[in-house]
Amino acid sequence: MPVTTESFYANVTLTDVQLASCYYPILVDIAKHKHCLTYGELVERAKAEYPDHPVVQKAIAVSTGRRLDVVRMFTAERELPDLTSLVISKGSGECGTGFTNHFDPQAARDKVFAFDWSNATLDFDGFVKSTETGITPRKKVKESKALQLMAAYYQEHKSAMPLSIRAQRELIVELIMEGFSEEEAFKQAAHIDT
User: Fold this and answer.
1) Using one digit for the tens of pLDDT, what is the confidence trace for 4-15?
2) Are 149 and 88 in contact, with CB atoms under 8 Å apart?
3) Which of 31, 163, 168, 194 has CB atoms 3.0–4.6 Å from 189's, for a disulfide?
4) What is the pTM of this model?
């Protein structure tokens, strides 16, 4: 399959980029040790390694796929193996469908494990700066308002929603708080499998 440097998501946010910059060195470290970890383990490790980073401390596992997409863009630009193949779902033991719909995870992991990561750049800063300039800031929404907007949208459209959407409540609220419209948040959440 061709390497893509474009995001699978409609809009990359500043939060996506900030979290990706923290996840990338963790992924390089686990690649060196030829390990995998779950979405939740990645978030918890990042929280432990960046205790003073407020965005990291608010991170949740269900939105990690969005953040990994930014890591994938970074590695693809540098023609590095796809580190995001090392992050798997606790339930399935495999990458989420956002990955498996586009790539063979085992083939990607084989490339990651065969690569010599000892000389790989850990400098995500230049990528962060260039990516941030292309991001249109969104108007943040307080959690209480996001909960109201989510509930109202769900009530109005629930007959057209998949039953599984209820499991994505945290992600939907987070996306609305980041400034996505209710429609965008529900649409993105409907395609997440972590």
Assistant:
1) 444 444 467 778
2) no
3) 168
4) 0.67
